[in-house]
Amino acid sequence: MAVRWLCSLFGKPFDGGKRMDHGGPQQQQHHPMEQQHQPYNPQHPAMMRLYEVQKEVASLGPQVCTFSGLQNDRDYKRLERELTRLLLEVDQVDTEGKPELQGARKRAAQEVEGLLRYLEENATHPSRVAIEQLSNEARQLVDERVVAPQRAGGVAEINDELVDALQEIVLRLTQVKTEGRVPLRKARYRALTRLCAVQDVIEGRTQQQTLSLPLSGDTHEAVHCINQVMVKVSVARSQLVALLMGLSGRDSCAHLSRILTEMQVELDALDVSGNAAIRNYRKQVVEEINGLLKHLDLEGEGDDTRRYDLAQNNSIREIEAVRAHVSHLREGILRHCAMGDLGFRPKAELQGMLTHLDQVDTAKNPCIREARRRAVVEVQAVITFLDLREALARRQPGPNEHPSHRAVWLVLGSLSDLQAQVLGFDGKRVDKSYMMLEELLTKQLLALDAVDPLGDETTKVARKQAVKFAQNILNYLDMKTDEWEY
Question: Which range, of 1-15, 160-174, 224-238, 261-275, averages the lowest pLDDT?
């Protein structure tokens, strides 16, 4: 995103901080007559001082417009202090009562005030607060289940429940609205990368627990040394998780990187020639160390806007191209169905899109992963709509069909009609049509709940599938209207 920075203080437009775009302060157009004034003598002491202020503002501007922290951060306080100092210096410029100098000073003050306002707005924005709250929730979870137990000499409580809880927080983070603001995008991205790194470390630990390691020290003289390194790796893993989640006040990524590198050197020096089992054991330990090291380059992660401003990302472009194609096919399918024509069934094309989406490179970026997941849901929604329509058209109930089974099919027929409306829905949650669809789908769930299978196993299975189908439609409607952004 191109950000237009600060303009000249002398005879050029200033915004005074009154309007902000997604990247930072924008310029404000002045009346043409204002621009006809010739700049005041640039050698005048007041103009010289304002020019010096302009240079300092131009230096601080990019820092303000990409700052992604909170008000209690050291950089926030530094920027606020520097801008306040500049504002005071501008206020002290002696204009000698001359309109040209007064105008230049006013524009300079407006520019500084605009940056101060923008700095505060992003640091206190509700979305920034939400990002911090989710980060704290993840931090508390990891501290209680992983870091604190290991510091106390116990064993970390790593299981599927912890992995699922972290994944749920990741999903909620991807759904935080940033309004396209660079600082908010940056804050969300940094929180996500650290949490996803913790997930990788924890999942790697889960895999290690299934290995038949360590080996017995009697097997080879090098095994005792490798076993000792394994103990150090376990400690380093806990330290890494603490670092990533901001739970370590003393350690640093550079310090932990040195420790892990020393472990690699120690392992490389071992003589394990002639014993394939020991070589394999050492190799697995080295691979685990490498897995930890790859997460230690997150200090500067997020400084590159290409990582979190995904509008020009090639993977996102691929996903958007698929979504556009799905939208075109969906419109055609709904149009044919409205005319009673069930011959238009581009199911093979839709299945090909699922294959294409599966091959999209997400680069472990959680926002791209979520974008791909949502695109997959869109494709699957159209496929399930076609499958149900085909099943309803082929259905030939016999005279001995169980009444409860017939009742389930009646509900499925209603759900198919409602799904067509959901697929074509393009509104918001405040719309009456949205509330009507939600209410009608809920009624179908209640209708299924009221069906008594009377011991008929076929009806039990059919009702269970119909309930899942109705819930999927509700979830799809919810997804279409949650205003998610990259």
Answer: 1-15
The Cα 184–Cα 178 span in angstroms is 5
Question: DSSP string covering 298-340, please?
Answer: -SSTT-SGGGT-GGG-HHHHHHHHHHHHHHHHHHHHHHHHHTT
Please, is 181 exposed, middle or buried when counting C-beta atoms within 10 Å of its C-beta (0-12, 13-18, 19+)? buried
**Alpha-carbon gap, residue 192 to 362, rounded angstroms:** 14
pLDDT digits (tens, 9 = 90+) for 329-378: 999 999 998 888 878 889 899 999 999 999 998 877 777 888 899 999 99
User: Could you give the 3-state DSSP secondary structure of residue 25?
Assistant: strand
Distance CA 188, CA 175 (A): 10
Q: Under CATH, what is the fold of the domain 209-299?
A: Methane Monooxygenase Hydroxylase; Chain G, domain 1 (1.20.58)
Select from 62, 63, 53 the least CA-distant residue to 93. Answer: 53
Q: What are phi and psi of 354, to 5 degrees?
A: -60, -40
Instruction: List, in order, residues 6 or more apart from 283 with CB less than 8 Å away.
Output: none
The domain made up of 311-481 has a fold known as: Methane Monooxygenase Hydroxylase; Chain G, domain 1 (1.20.58)
In angstroms, the CA 304 to CA 295 distance is 17
Q: Where exactly are the structural domains of the chain?
A: 209-299, 311-481
Per the CB < 8 A criterion, the answer to whether 204 and 147 are in contact is no
- Asked if the domains at 209-299 and 311-481 fall in one CATH topology, the answer is yes
20 has which bridge partners? Answer: 25
Q: Which letter does DSSP use for residue 430 in this model?
A: T
Helix H, strand E, coil C: the string for 71-126 is CCCHHHHHHHHHHHHHHHHHHCCCCCCCHHHHHHHHHHHHHHHHHHHHHHHHHCCH
C-beta neighbour count of 115 within 10 angstroms: 26
Which amino acid is located at 359 in the chain? Q
CB 157 within 8 A of CB 259: no
Non-local CB neighbours of 301 within 8 Å, separated by 6+ positions = 190, 193, 307
